[in-house]
Amino acid sequence: MSLEHEHHGADLTHGNAGHHGPKTLPSVLTAPAVVGAWRTRAAIVAVIFAVVSLAFFFVPGGKSHLLRAYLMGYMTCFNFCGGALAFLMVQYVSGGKWGQILRRPLEAMTRTIWVVFAMFLPVMFWMKHLYIWAAYPNKAALLDAYKTGHITQEQQLTASSKLTMLSPTSAWVQYLLVLGFMALVITLLNKWSVQRDNDPRAGTLASFDKWRVKFENLSGPSILFYVILMSAFVIVFVKSLDVTWYSSVYGLQFLVAQGYAVLALGILTLILLSRYEPIKTMFRTTEQHDMGKLLFAFVMLNIYLTFAEFLIIWSGNLPDEIPWYLHRIHGGWWYVCSADVICHWLIPFCILLSRDIKRSKSKMIWVTVFMIFARFIDMFWLIEPNFKDAAGNLHLAGNFGILAYITVPVAVVAFWMFFYLTELMRRPLINVNDPHTQELLEPEHAH
Amino acid sequence: MPVHEGVYGLIAEFNTPSELVHATEMAHRAGYRRMECYTPYPVEEAAEALRFHKTGVPLMCLLGGLMGLVTGYGMEVWVNTLGYPLNIAGRPLFSWPAFVIPGYEWTILFAGLSAAFGMLAQNGLPQLYHPLFNAPNFRDGATTDKFFLCLEAHDPKFSATETRVFLEGFSPVSVVEVDH
């Protein structure tokens, strides 16, 4: 096999001695102009797909599917923003060069928090069209809905017992609390990151230590709070689409899915940026390989949790729990379920086993794009079968509204991508006042 | 094993991995092929400079893993459907979800063992004697803080004088001739 692809980024022209010495930090650290072009493309995609999505207003069942598909698109953006925050905090606590090169893209993802905050308002205002607990917000309304045959007795009983967490007021409180907490941590981390680079003592050990401790102290406890609050958010706004179901691993599954998606997007961003300075100089194959391995770990962890959840519920075979899977396996859903396992796990797993592919820039572009695509299949499989018209009955005839799941999430994610790229352009792509920066300039073999 | 006599090769000692990688790359360009780098920790670029990265171990690991998967899963299927069929909670005899975990465990076990034994089979370990340990600076430095490049005598391009001059061109700490 050719060895050429082993040498991405490594300068093997040995014309004179010293080629393996440290590189110098590029003089310009801002994002290349091409990011502006990507941003324009994202805007165009968002507009085109949004316009196409308007057609679903005139299709039978289109309006309700528009809202469900919007939730799916929104959750993808939420995962990017929240996952980036989680990665940022974990890297501040653990250190590591992989996270140093990834830091500014992650920060850019987190700074979309206000957009993510605002993008959720349509769901909040129309929540009664999505959630039983919002349509029938108290015990009396639930009982009434049961008596008139709108909901089953199980739905009435479980929704009544979950009113503390699942009610419109409680949903508003949790929405504000979760995204408010994220916004607070994100604001501080991003503010400090700029202050750190502007530190008059930058480059000294005292400055390194001061900022390291400061970031660690905020990130450590915030990781814990984030995981708890994020779990609450996905339980209220995704899991409760089926008000009768219970799963204690649900939040964690979303957390892992966030890692999966964010790492794929982060690697993709870095590889595309590595055609231009400053990332061209800074992004070594070593870090790409490390991130590839981490991505592989998330692929594995994701199937581990997903399958463990399934195996436990399958073994228990309890009437409370098993319908959730039956709705997602029977009536045509088997195809989606299989596609989910194959695209979300099997294909990335097999591909990422290869060391050569993890180190290849051109191949990893396609792998990461495919993995982001696979996230959409997974979210579709999680969301759509919650609704009565789709549970255990995937059909297109007389149900063209379901095609909104193709156009709306693309529009929503492209819309989010526009803001992500805008934020990416606003800061230098390298955080200079960090000892890892110097290490990134060293040759690949200098461990 | 035949008894070797005479010169095993010339060994150049370097203080940094950069110098080692550079010298190795240049030696490869000059046409040397029978050579080896010795470093206290893995230096991937040195392996690349040696054009040494393709071994049979990944393939053995993969095949071992697949063998484990087929064996583990197949055994579960055979036991539960043919060998000793039991009605467990009214589930079908072929209850594939239950077989996944043992299949997975066997995959890991076989893949791990194949990788470990495959590595041992391919790298010639355990090896009780190696000529390089005749060089005192190698004994002292190879596992602590020195980086060595050995150009071996059975390379067609090897010449006791010219190869020494070639290696000295990279300003190593020393160039030592090692006997068998």
TrEMBL record, chain A:
Q: Which organism is it from?
A: Granulicella mallensis
Keyword Membrane applies: yes
> Basic and acidic residues bias located where?
1-11
Q: Which domain of life is it from?
A: Bacteria
Q: Give the protein's recorded name.
A: Quinol:cytochrome c oxidoreductase quinone-binding subunit 2
Q: Where does the chain cross the membrane?
A: 42-59, 71-93, 113-134, 172-189, 218-238, 250-273, 294-313, 333-353, 365-383, 403-421
Residue ranges of the region described as Disordered: 1-21
Q: Which UniProt keywords apply?
A: Membrane, Transmembrane, Transmembrane helix
Automatic annotation (TrEMBL), chain B:
Looking up InterPro entries in the UniProt record yields: ActD (IPR021776)
Keywords of the record, alphabetical order, are: Membrane, Transmembrane, Transmembrane helix
Q: Where are the transmembrane segments?
A: 59-79, 99-121
Q: What is this protein called?
A: Quinol:cytochrome c oxidoreductase membrane protein
Source species, please? Granulicella mallensis
Phylogenetic placement of the source organism = Bacteria, Pseudomonadati, Acidobacteriota, Terriglobia, Terriglobales
